[in-house]
Design goal:
189 residues; 65% helix
Length: 189
């Protein structure tokens, strides 16, 4: 993921940071979304645990997300989503973020677990399943089918496909083509 090296390091070693970045990857540039977990850790003075986020005072967490520059375009709503997901991880997976995916017996089950989290609609859940499969080797039976087109080998459709500047450019070009097609369709009506 092409973001600041320290943020990349955190994303590559912290499942919680990766999950948080994915939650925040909505209506902001992906570099901002995936840098935000590092910025959160910097503001806290340490890398938070999932239990810490689950138990955090909601208003205090929203205030941390809102400090300038805000961690997201909608800092209060996103702080609440991150906290909601942390609470699910604590209550359903014993506080082990990786258990969300490592214990899924199938791609279908993995998808259903992810789509049930706050902030994950069907498309984002498929993208996260693809990211887990393509970049982290989390490949329960049927994971590509569960990820839909995002799981296709050699595709450049989402964050699941970004490993360097070239792949980032390809994903951006794909997204721009989708926007252009949607705009053309809207104006032709």
């Amino acid at each position: 993921m092409p973001v600041e090296p320290a943020a990349n390091d955190l994303l590559s070693r912290s499942p919680l940071a990766l999950l948080t970045g994915m939650i925040l990857d909505q209506q902001v540039p992906l570099e901002r979304a995936f840098s935000a977990p590092y910025d959160l850790a910097t503001r806290l003075g340490h890398e938070p645990t999932v239990t810490e986020l689950a138990d955090f005072d909601p208003d205090a967490l929203a205030a941390i997300f809102s400090e300038r520059p805000a961690l997201h375009r909608y800092p209060k709503a996103m702080a609440a989503r991150v906290q909601d997901v942390a609470r699910v991880i604590v209550s359903e997976y014993g506080g082990d973020v990786t258990a969300l995916w490592s214990t899924a017996p199938s791609g279908s089950e993995l998808y259903h677990r992810v789509v049930g989290l706050a902030g994950f609609g069907p498309q984002k859940a498929k993208i996260f399943v693809a990211l887990l499969g393509k970049q982290l080797g989390v490949q329960p039976p049927g994971w590509r089918e569960a990820a839909g087109a995002f799981g296709d080998e050699g595709s450049y459709m989402s964050v699941a496909d970004i490993v360097d500047e070239d792949s980032l450019g390809r994903v951006r070009a794909y997204k721009q083509s989708l926007k252009a097609a949607a705009k053309e369709k809207a104006t032709s009506k």
